[in-house]
Structure of GNAT family N-acetyltransferase:
Amino acid sequence: MGAADAPPPAEPRIRAAATGDASDVAELLGLLGYPCTRDEAAERIAIVLGDPRQHLMLAEVDGMACGRVAMDLRYSLTRGADLARITALVVAPDSNRRGIGRRLLREVEAIARNARIARIEVTSNQRRADAHAFYRDCGYADGSAHFIKLLGD
């Protein structure tokens, strides 16, 4: 059977992450540049699960985790309304260009719409040019500059 005869890749399944997904979440966080252990990921997932304004979704293909997105909902004093903020979206390199990132975005956009939120923000490191092109291609526009200060007293 040649490559042309291979079955098409399975559709990704998007679901809420659970504490049992800690190994997968840790691996995906590492791919994004935020390494952590399985136990640290389990603690983080538990915090998200305990907060109804946070969401952590996992993408799976054939039962294997291949992507993840985190989003929180918060009140914006400047806007006088709630907004959504995507805090971490990643797709495993071997699953790129299969629509998984777009499916994850559509899922969090649906959650935001159901919560009657009209604005989603996402931050992306300046060095992630491919991610910036992806977000623009998905209808996201450039916004304000994002500044950080580490308080490592």
